[in-house]
Amino acid sequence: AQSVTQLDSQVPVFEEAPVELRCNYSSSVSVYLFWYVQYPNQGLQLLLKYLSGSTLVKGINGFEAEFNKSQTSFHLRKPSVHISDTAEYFCAVSPLRTGANNLFFGTGTRLTVIP
Amino acid sequence: ETGVTQSPTHLIKTRGQQVTLRCSSQSGHNTVSWYQQALGQGPQFIFQYYREEENGRGNFPPRFSGLQFPNYSSELNVNALELDDSALYLCASSFVQGISEQYFGPGTRLTVT
To answer: CA dihedral in degrees (B94, A78, A15, A105; nearest 10)?
Structure first.
C-alpha cells in the first residue's frame, strides 16, 4: 500500500523569498514520485517527476525537488517565489509495476505568496 | 495538439439520480484515468481504461463505472448518487499504459443535493 503525507496544509511566503514544500511517502514497493500544481478552477499540471537517476530533479517554473530514499521524502523547493506561484501543490507517488500505474496523492499544500 | 477536455464544467444533481461525465483525451493518448477530488483533499484514483478495457480500479463501489470508446474518449457514470459524491472529477490521459506523464483535464464539479 502507498500513502503520501504533505506536512504543511498552508504555507504563506513573501514574494522573492525561498520556499520548501514537504512531502513524505510510505510504500511497500518502489515508486515513482511527482509534484503537481493546481491553479484555481483548473486541473493539475505536472511540475516535475523522479523516475530514476539523479536524485535532484528540476522542473518547470524554477521548481526543483530532491528524492531522499532513506528518509522517504521528496521535498519541493524554489529559491525565489513569484505572486503567480500562488496555488495548491500536490505530491504523488505511483508504484513501479506493470498494469494500472495510478497516482496516489497527498492532501495538498496551499502556497500563498504575499506581495 | 488539443489538450484533455471535460464536460460539463459544472453539474447539480439530486441524491439517488444518475450522472454521466465525459472526457476527451489528448490526441494520440490511449489510456485514461479518472480521479475524484473532494473539497480540501487530494485526488483519489477511481479507475483506468486502456484500449477500451478497465485496467485497474481504486477503492470505489460498483456504482462508479466507466467506458472508453475507440476514439479514446471516455465516460464516467455514477448511479444512485450520494451526498458524498459531491466533488471535482478529473480525467487524465496518457500515451501508453504504465508510467508516462498523465495530462489532466480541468475537471467537472459535481454537486449532489
So the answer is: 40
Q: Which residues of B touch A99 (CB under 8 A)?
A: 55-56, 97-98
Sequence-ordered list of residues with C-beta below 8 angstroms from that of A18, at least 6 positions apart, any chain = A77, A78, A79, A80, A81
Please give the grid coordinates belonging to residue A114.
504575499
Find the distance separating the first CA and the last CA of chain A, reported in whole Å.
41
Decide: A42 and B104 in contact? Cβ < 8 Å.
no
Chain segment B72-83, per-residue pLDDT in tens: 899 999 999 999
- Residue-wise pLDDT for B89-98, tens only, equals 999 998 765 5
**Residue B83 phi/psi, 5° resolution?**
-60, -35
* Contact between chains at B42 and A90 (C-beta distance less than 8 A): yes
CB contact under 8 A, B104 and A43: yes
Q: Name the closest residue on chain A to residue B107, using Cα atoms.
A: A43
User: Is the link from the previous residue into B8 a cis peptide, with omega within 30 of 0?
Assistant: yes
Residue A40 parent element (H or E) = none
* Residue of B35, B44, B99 with shortest CB distance to A32: B99
Considering only the beta carbons, identify the residue of A42, A94, A105 that sits closest to B42.
A105
What pLDDT does A78 receive? 98
Test A99 with B101 for CB contact under 8 angstroms. no
pLDDT grade, residue A53 (50/70/90)? confident
With vertex at residue A21, the alpha carbon angle to CA A103 and CA A115, rounded to the nearest 5 degrees, is: 125
